[in-house]
Design brief:
Elements lengths: L3 H5 L5 E6 L5 E7 L4 E7 L1 H18 L3 E6 L16 H27 L3 E5 L15 H8 L8 H13 L11
Parallel strand pairs: 1-4, 4-5
Antiparallel strand pairs: 1-2, 2-3
Helix pairs in contact: 2-3
Length: about 180
């Protein structure tokens, strides 16, 4: 007897999360079977090279891959302006947000071009111990069992997206 749910929702060998940024995007990959996770901060060109390599490897090996590109514009509100910000500061923040959105949209376009199975990902809820509710390095290591010397916020956000979307439960840990 076959499992109809598995027939409808295929299991992916690898799940990739990307947190786009103008300078360096966070890119993380989770191997579902082993729960191994790797993450890096890559420039736009390096991210494209990586996605192209992933697409080629998937074709050669038959591995299934799903890519999630964070899309901040899917939030109903993405307002970072403070009451005391002047016009120049508000304009600078708007330009910065627009540049990040364009990186995100271009990465999605390139995933499509490379034939990858990909989706826009609304930013995950921020309910962690870090500033602004963002996940800390220690929290990420506890949840995933990942052992890294250091991670930046983009790497952690990408890793969290990949981990959650791979449908791997959190490791049991004591909260900080």
């Amino acid at each position: 007897m076959t499992n109809k749910l598995q027939d409808i929702q295929p299991t992916y060998h690898y799940t990739i999360g990307i947190d786009p940024d103008v300078e360096k995007s966070g890119v993380a990959v989770v191997e579902k079977e082993t729960r191994r996770i790797e993450c890096a901060a890559l420039t736009f060109a390096q991210t494209l090279d990586y996605l192209q390599w992933v697409a080629k490897r998937a074709e050669e090996t038959g591995a299934t891959i799903k890519v999630y590109v964070e899309a901040g514009w899917l939030n109903q509100s993405n307002w970072h302006v403070k009451r005391d910000d002047g016009k120049a500061v508000v304009a600078k923040k708007g330009v910065s947000q627009g540049r990040n959105e364009e990186v995100s949209r271009l990465l999605g376009e390139m995933c499509e071009h490379y034939g990858l199975d990909w989706y826009w990902q609304k930013p995950l809820e921020k309910h962690w111990k870090g500033a602004g509710g963002k996940i800390t390095h220690a929290e990420l290591c506890r949840i995933t069992g990942m052992i890294y010397g250091r991670t930046n916020q983009e790497m952690r956000d990408a890793a969290l997206i990949a981990w959650v979307k791979a449908s791997i439960p959190r490791n049991k840990y004591k909260p900080l």
